[in-house]
Every structure is written in C-alpha cells, then in structure tokens.
Amino acid sequence: TITATSRGAIPVVRFKANVGRRVQFELVRTDGSKVPLGA
C-alpha cells in the first residue's frame, strides 16, 4: 500500500492481516530518510 499525505497528516490504512504472524515495517520519507521510531 502506498499513501501520499499532506504535511502533518496521519493516514488511515486498512489491510488484511493474519493473526499470529510477525511483521516488520521500515518507513521511509520521500527523500529516502527513515521515519524516527515512535513517530
């Protein structure tokens, strides 16, 4: 899923998930820098 939001916006993203599976997200900004943990 790709989202494009305006500055300061918090997107609501819905996706199908399986219970009991682990997942790790790596969030990056359009300039390639990583989103800080807890942001």
UniProtKB/TrEMBL annotation:
Protein name per Swiss-Prot or TrEMBL: Fimbrial biogenesis outer membrane usher protein
Highest taxon in the source lineage: Bacteria
Biological source species: Pseudomonas syringae pv. pisi str. 1704B
